[in-house]
């Protein structure tokens, strides 16, 4: 990655951290999952409002490091209006971005999420970046979903 791109990526992350998108509760949310990364102190709540199989509204609340907040902010921005199937596919793409060996290419359709790709070099930070995504997966997968997910509940989870 060249220096200009790295600077751009840092700027994207800092911007999402300074002005998180969709940072509020949804009173009539269909799903609400708390996500906790005790190793860093990131604590988020993810809210989804579903109509049929579409995410008509999505938001989050909480506090954490810049990586966790930026990742959650990008997640909500990307998935508002998308279907549950599209959200599940994006979860897999993002998960691959952080964990697959060898690393997948950072393609243009990742958009701003590409800014998080460099995080994979820092395993502690990967937990920050994936926290909201694990909350998303929990919110989409179970009926009813678990009330909370944590980075430390499963051996080897990333
Ligand atoms: Zn963190």
Describe this structure in words.
Helices cover 41% and strands 19% of the residues. The radius of gyration is 15 Å and the shape is globular. A hairpin with a 4-residue loop joins β1 and β2. The chain is built from four helices and four strands, in the order αβββαααβ. The protein has helices at 3-18, 66-79, 84-99, 123-141; strands at 31-37, 42-51, 54-63, 148-150. α3 (84-99) runs antiparallel to α4 (123-141). The chain has one domain (3-143): Sufe protein. Chain: A (Alpha-Beta Complex). The two termini are 23 Å apart. It has 158 residues and is an alpha+beta fold. A four-stranded mixed beta sheet has the order 3-2-1-4, covered by helices on one side. The structure holds zinc ion (ZN). Zinc ion binds next to α2. Residues 37, 40, 42, 64-65, 67-68, 128 line the site of zinc ion.
């Amino acid at each position: 990655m060249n220096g200009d791109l790295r600077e751009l990526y840092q700027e994207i992350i800092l911007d999402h951290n300074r002005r998180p998108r969709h940072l509020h509760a949804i009173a009539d949310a269909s799903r609400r999952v708390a996500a906790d990364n005790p190793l860093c102190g990131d604590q988020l709540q993810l809210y989804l409002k579903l109509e049929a199989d579409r995410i008509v509204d999505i938001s989050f609340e909480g506090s954490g490091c810049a990586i966790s907040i930026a990742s959650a902010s990008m997640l909500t921005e990307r998935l508002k209006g998308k279907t549950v199937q599209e959200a599940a596919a994006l979860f897999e793409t993002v998960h691959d971005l952080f964990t697959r060996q060898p690393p997948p290419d950072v393609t243009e359709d990742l958009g701003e999420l590409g800014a998080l790709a460099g995080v994979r070099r820092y395993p502690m930070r990967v937990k920050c970046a994936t926290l909201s995504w694990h909350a998303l997966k929990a919110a989409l997968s179970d009926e009813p979903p678990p009330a909370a997910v944590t980075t430390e509940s499963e051996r080897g989870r990333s």
